[in-house]
Design goal:
The protein has 126 residues and is of the alpha+beta class. The chain is built from 3 helices and 5 strands.
């Protein structure tokens, strides 16, 4: 009887060790897969249009801005100076939307104008 309990105890310890090793090795394989997946996922490519960005920054009502292409879409962002009317900013956004659509004919164009941390114009031309 004593021998059976000893054998049962040894069997339990062996099974516990096997279960532990199996669980640990499964976790390593899963972690490696997650790392590989995150490495293969790349951020979308952003290409700045330096000429249009320079042209945009020369505009009097604009404090800062950028024109770039991302995911087959042309995007212009404008930070409008305080004291500029919303109508003037919207007209400027529409002007750049039309201008970018001429250059990027096969792309959707999105122009955003922000003043005092508020979006005052968002023009999309498809």
């Amino acid at each position: 009887m004593k021998g059976k309990f000893k054998l049962l105890g040894i069997t339990a310890i062996i099974m516990t060790l096997m279960l532990s090793f199996t669980a640990c090795s499964f976790g390593n394989k899963f972690g490696e897969q997650g790392a590989k997946t995150s490495q293969t996922t790349k951020a979308p490519k952003i290409t700045e249009d330096a000429d249009k960005t320079a042209q945009l920054k020369k505009e009097k009502p604009i404090l800062n801005g950028k024109v770039y292409v991302q995911n087959n879409r042309a995007v212009a962002t404008m930070v409008i100076k305080n004291g500029t009317s919303d109508k003037e900013a919207k007209d400027l956004a529409q002007k750049y939307a039309n201008d970018l659509k001429k250059k990027y004919k096969n792309m959707q164009v999105n122009v955003m104008a922000v003043k005092n941390n508020k979006n005052i114009a968002n023009v999309t031309v498809k």
